[in-house]
Amino acid sequence: MSQPPQPKATSSDHNGVSVIQSQSHAASAAASALLQQVPQPSPLSQASSPGAGKAAPGKMKKASADKDSDEYRQRRERNNLAVKKSRQRSKQKAMDTQQRVNQLKEENERLEAKIKLLSKELSVLKDLFLEHAHNLADNVQPPSGNPEASPAPNNQ
Fold this sequence. Notes:
Blueprint: E1 9-12, E2 17-23, E3 33-39, H1 43-48, H2 63-66, H3 70-139
Antiparallel strand pairs: 1-2, 2-3
């Protein structure tokens, strides 16, 4: 039967690195120890290492202290103006788009009316052409076997 592992003892060396020591159940506590070094962040190393819990400069500001500062108010005013301009541009773009839609609708209506008119004109001209073609066909005499007997064409 195995014995439960003995608790680990932790100590620190002079470099701020924790040393974890665990006892082996087969060897005595004083004779055999397995040392494993695990780096522990120290307050000095946190302040000097980049990205250790800090945002990049300019990204994170002191919330309470900056709200009363002139710089904060100026930034807010600039931002408010930028937002106002952006919204105004957006409204203007929407108005321009709506105006263009209205112009295109009117042009489409005019073109559809023109199509209708031209279709009627085409129909009238077709009817005239077909009537004229039928009249010509009725006036044409069947050709006789003698080409000289047919009337001479009129060259006007």
